[in-house]
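Troubleshooting: if your tokenizer reports a length mismatch, compare your output against this known-good record of 109 residues.
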Amino acid sequence: MLTWENTDQFGNLKVAQSKATSLDDLDPDLRDLVQAVLTDHPDNRTFSVDVAYAEIAAPRGDQVSHILNLPFVSQLLASGAAKNDLKQAIIDKLKDIVGDKATVIGPWD
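Known-good structure output:
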């Protein structure tokens, strides 16, 4: 279970650190992220996967309230993993979890 930390005095931005060490053990953290966002935001949810910053943010680019940091992503990139392949793998996992309850995209435009 993720521990969400408020990063401002109002609790508008919550950040958690994934404990996953690979794509294979990322699912529980993705489920926690999805549950937190779906609970706090009943409408218009979008999850943005940004491997360059090793994070997933939601629910909207102009109003991010949840950021899941993925430290293992930085390690994979540093060891030569293909950025686009890694991004797509995380997007696919997240899409499997959210189904039709939200949109999953790459980095915010």
